[in-house]
Amino acid sequence: MTLAQWVKATGPKVKGAWYLHEATVAAGIELDFFVFLSSMSGLTGQPGQANYAGANTFLDAFALWRNGQGLPASAIDIGAVADMGYAARDQQLLQRLLRNGYSGVTEAEMIEAFRAAGSYPVPDLNDGVAVAMRRAPFAHINTFATGFGSDKSLCHPDSRLHWKKDLRMAVWHNIHDSDMDGAGAAGSGDGLKAFLARAKGDPETLQKPETVGYLALEIGKQLMNLLLRPDDDLDVTLPVQQLGLDSLVGIELRNWWRQTFGFDISVLQLLGFGTLEELGRQAAVGLFKACECTQ
């Protein structure tokens, strides 16, 4: 790679970020948020595009640097956007990206991710990253990734993921092909689909006391699946935040909810209803209303 090729790819992101930072600081503007649209390539690399990967790594580091100065900043490491933009216009490129570990982010998911990134406060870095790293493993919560995954286990002979040897992705080694073929990968499985089909024909089923508990458990199983955790002994009365639900996981849970139940719910509602039991109740109420509308 020539120096000119490096500068051509890194310059717009590096200089653009610096100029926006300097201009707002010089003008004394107190920003509510400063969101960088970075890329998964800044985390995992991008074969043949070290300049593009480097530009996005800079954005992630710059967000951390601004936070260290007490200024708002967050970065979204985006995967391939599937329904708009450059990759969406080039289907061959999109399919190549999907085979290489990008799950395909939708426009709606990007809006939710931006909303989450814009709401993050300036984190307490404990008087500097070095101090924080000495006390405990450091995590910069204002930088997060969206839009990567795999439809095969990392040990599958057809897996082409260039990040499968990255230690930071080690949790994916706990997922086996049998898990992906089962209920964990397919959502709530055939049992929930069968229940929802019966409920359409007999909406009174949704008003039975045991329905709330059943739906709460299915929602909880999907939450555990998104968190890559077992759903054994799942307690539907625990607060969802205690179970691990946050705004980022909420985006994925919301998409599953919309596809499974057929009506929408916001991430704030998912977090605000408190427990899985209450989410089960809201699902039952929403499904019953939907059945009434179709009759």
From TrEMBL:
<dbReference type="GO" id="GO:0031177">
    <property type="term" value="F:phosphopantetheine binding"/>
</dbReference>
<dbReference type="GO" id="GO:0016491">
    <property type="term" value="F:oxidoreductase activity"/>
</dbReference>
<dbReference type="GO" id="GO:0004312">
    <property type="term" value="F:fatty acid synthase activity"/>
</dbReference>
<dbReference type="InterPro" id="IPR057326">
    <property type="entry name" value="KR_dom"/>
</dbReference>
<dbReference type="InterPro" id="IPR036736">
    <property type="entry name" value="ACP-like_sf"/>
</dbReference>
<dbReference type="GO" id="GO:0044550">
    <property type="term" value="P:secondary metabolite biosynthetic process"/>
</dbReference>
<protein>
    <submittedName>
        <fullName>Polyketide synthase</fullName>
    </submittedName>
</protein>
<dbReference type="Pfam" id="PF00550">
    <property type="entry name" value="PP-binding"/>
</dbReference>
<dbReference type="InterPro" id="IPR020806">
    <property type="entry name" value="PKS_PP-bd"/>
</dbReference>
<keyword id="KW-0597">Phosphoprotein</keyword>
<keyword id="KW-0560">Oxidoreductase</keyword>
<dbReference type="InterPro" id="IPR013968">
    <property type="entry name" value="PKS_KR"/>
</dbReference>
<keyword id="KW-0596">Phosphopantetheine</keyword>
<dbReference type="InterPro" id="IPR050091">
    <property type="entry name" value="PKS_NRPS_Biosynth_Enz"/>
</dbReference>
<dbReference type="InterPro" id="IPR036291">
    <property type="entry name" value="NAD(P)-bd_dom_sf"/>
</dbReference>
<dbReference type="InterPro" id="IPR009081">
    <property type="entry name" value="PP-bd_ACP"/>
</dbReference>
<dbReference type="GO" id="GO:0006633">
    <property type="term" value="P:fatty acid biosynthetic process"/>
</dbReference>
<dbReference type="Pfam" id="PF08659">
    <property type="entry name" value="KR"/>
</dbReference>
<feature type="domain" description="Carrier">
    <location>
        <begin position="210"/>
        <end position="287"/>
    </location>
</feature>
